[in-house]
C-alpha cells in the first residue's frame, strides 16, 4: 500500500502544475484589475498605470507565472492586493476559522446521519423509516442557501438566539471567553450545515443496511442463532459503512475548503468568504493560492477515501 500511496502522491505533482497554469491564465482573463476604485476613486489613469507596471501586471502571463513559481519555491505566495498582507498569513488566519466551523459541522453530520441511517434501515417499511425518509427528501429538495437564509432569519434575527455575523464577539476577552464566543458563533451555521448534509449519509447508510440484511451471510448467522444485535454490530454495520467511508476523505479535506454559502450568509471570516472577496476584487495572488489549495485538498480527499475503504474492508486494496 505504501508504494501505491507514494505513486499517487507523485502523480499529484503534474496535476497540480496543470491546475496552477489553468487558474493563472483564467484569472488574468477576468475583466478589470485589482487597483481601480480600491485605492482612491479619484485616482488618475497615470497612477493606476504606474501601479499595474510596478506589480508586473503588464508582463505576459507566462512571465508572471514564472515569477510566481520562483517565489512559490521560496515559500512566498506574494502579497494580497486588497489586504496588503502576505497571502500565506491571510490564508492561515482564515483557515483556523474554517477548520473549526467545518470540524463541528462534520462531527454533527455523522452524529446525526449515522444513527438515522441505521434506524431507518433497521425499520424498513415502518413508520420510523417513513419519517426518516421524509426528512431526507425535504433536506435534499430544499436548496442549501434557502436553509441558511431561513435559519439565519428565524434563529438569528427573529428569535435572536444566535449571532449572525463574525466568528468571535468583540467583547470577548481571555482564553475561556474567546472560546465560548467562538463556539456560540458556530452553533447555528454548523447545525444548519449538518442538517443539510445528513440526507446523503442517511440514504446511503439506509440502503447499505437493507442490502446487508438481505445478504446470505446474515441469513446464515440468523440460522445459527446469532442475535440480531450482534449481527448488526459485527456484520451489517461494517459493510453498510463502506459508502460512508468513500466520502470520509472528502469530508476531512473539506475542513479547510470551507463553505461559500455558509460563510457568505453569516459573514463568517473563513476560506470561502476569502475566495469570494478575492474574485470580486481581482486579488489574483489570493485567488491563485486558494484554487491551488482546493485542488490539493481534492486530490488528498480521493486518496484518503481509498485508504479508508481499504481499512474498513480488507478485501479492497488501493490500486
UniProtKB/TrEMBL annotation:
* Record carries keyword Lipid biosynthesis: no
Which residue ranges does the record assign to the ABC transmembrane type-1 domain? 95-305
SUPFAM superfamilies tied to this protein: MetI-like (SSF161098)
Q: Where located? A: Cell membrane
The UniProt entry lists the main location of this chain as membrane
What are the TM regions of this chain, as residue ranges?
Answer: 9-27, 99-120, 132-156, 176-197, 240-266, 286-312
Q: Which UniProt keywords apply?
A: Cell membrane, Membrane, Transmembrane, Transmembrane helix, Transport
- According to its record, how does it sit in the membrane? Multi-pass membrane protein
Q: Which PANTHER family match?
A: DIPEPTIDE TRANSPORT SYSTEM PERMEASE PROTEIN DPPB-RELATED
| Similarity comment: family membership | Belongs to the binding-protein-dependent transport system permease family.
Which protein, by its recorded name, is this? ABC transporter permease
Organism taxonomic ancestry: Bacteria, Bacillati, Bacillota, Bacilli, Lactobacillales
